[in-house]
Write a structure and sequence with these properties.
The protein is 43% helix and 17% strand. It has 242 residues and is of the alpha/beta class. The strands form two sheets. Strands 3-2-1-4-5-6-9 form a seven-stranded parallel beta sheet, with helices on both faces. Strands 7-8 form a two-stranded parallel ribbon. Helix 4 (103-131) packs parallel to helix 5.
């Protein structure tokens, strides 16, 4: 019997990278998945594989659109009448020097990385509160604790995500809802693999490291919450600035 046998789980940003890897790990452990992302073709490709293992539903979703998120959770409720786990993984990175940043860049990053998580959390609570149980895992970043140069929108959104996680955990605890934040260091994703520059030369870890950590959080006993978890390559320049 899998660690997540029979659990109903929504994963946003599931079409690639960390979200895709988490979907594969959760499916292998028995979860019934609702996968959300903007790229329907990528979701279909993943679902074709995962449906051979476990039940998988895909919903085209832009987390910057409130209507899309409401639709995602409504489809989940209609199909399963329950929701056990939400992984808020969808996110974007953008930045630049503060004096050159446009309001559009700032707003888009905050909307996807923070407002989208708020909306998913809000809709999840509507289902989880009457159930008296549920778990939400927010994918943050070590940038939420220690910024990079020229990353004000991204860093601010991930700082905000820590606050949202703690506020949600506080509100949820009386209803059996746990909320935690998983903060990755450098992860080698498709975007990173294709990128150039100094960041590409830094120590990296595979997406499997984050998926494994997410599975550990998801499989915790219902009365236990992993509130804040950081996973990073041993050689990454982060602790004590070196």
């Amino acid at each position: 019997m899998g660690k997540l046998e029979g659990k109903v789980c929504i994963i946003t940003g599931a079409s690639s990278g960390i979200g895709k890897e988490i979907a594969q790990y959760f499916s292998a452990e028995g979860a019934k998945l609702i996968l959300a992302a903007r790229r329907l073709d990528k979701l279909e490709e993943l679902a074709n594989d995962l449906n051979k293992v476990n039940e998988t539903t895909i919903v085209k979703t832009d987390v910057s659109e409130e209507e899309d998120i409401i639709n995602l959770f409504e489809i989940t409720k209609q199909k399963y009448s329950q929701l056990d786990i939400v992984v808020n993984n969808a996110g974007i990175f953008d930045g630049g020097s503060i004096e050159s940043l446009s309001l559009e860049t700032w707003s888009k990053t905050m909307t996807v990385n923070l407002t989208g998580v708020f909306l998913c959390t809000r809709e999840a609570f509507k289902i989880m509160k009457p159930q008296k149980n549920g778990r939400i895992i927010n994918i943050g970043s070590i940038s939420g604790q220690m910024p990079r140069m020229n990353s004000a929108p991204y860093t601010s959104s991930k700082h905000g995500l820590i606050g949202l996680t703690k506020s949600s955990a506080l509100e949820g605890r009386a209803h059996g809802i746990s909320v935690g934040c998983l903060n990755p260091g450098n992860v080698l994703t498709e975007w990173r693999d294709e990128s150039k520059g100094s960041m590409h030369q830094e120590p990296m870890m595979d997406t499997t490291a984050i998926a494994s950590a997410a599975l550990t959080m998801a499989a915790m006993p219902p009365e236990v919450n992993m509130l804040d978890t950081t996973v990073l390559p041993i050689g990454q320049l982060y602790i004590g600035r070196g």
